[in-house]
Write the C-alpha cells for this entry.
Amino acid sequence: MFTNDDNLSQNLSTQGFFALPLASSIGERLDQVRRTANASQADFAAKLGISRTTLHNYTRGERDIPVPVLAKLLEVYRADPLWILDGETGIQSRESDILRELGDILEQVEERLEKRRMRLGTKKRWMIVCRLYTERLTTLRQTGEKPSLEALGLDDLLDVAA
C-alpha cells in the first residue's frame, strides 16, 4: 500500500508527525495513525469515543469526521486535523510556510519603502505586512492565484500609513 513514503512516514511518526502523499485518502491517513499507534481498529475507535462501524464509515468516506473526533485525533495521537482531512502537510509545515511568506512580504515592503525614500515605524510596517498577507491568502483561496503586492495596493497602503 505504501512505497518509499513509508520510511518518511515512519521517521516523521516517531517525532509525532504523520505524512503521506497528498493523493492518499482520509481512510489511508486514519489507518496510518492507527497502525503507527499499534492499535487495533476497536481500540483506536474506543480511544476516539466512536464505534468501530463509525470509524469504518469515516475511512471509506461515507461520513464526514466531526470536529470532536478530529480534536481527539490531535489530542490522543498528535494527528493534525487538516492533514487527516485533506493531506495538508501539518501544523509545523504550515507555520514555516506562513513565516516564510511573511518574511518575503516584509522584504518587499522594505524595498518599496527604500525605493520611495519613506520611513515608517515598525508597528505600521508590520500592520501593512499582515494586511497584505491576509489579502493575498484570501485572493489565493478564491482564485487559486497568488497576486502581487502591487495588485493588492501596496503603494496605497504606504501612502495611507505615511
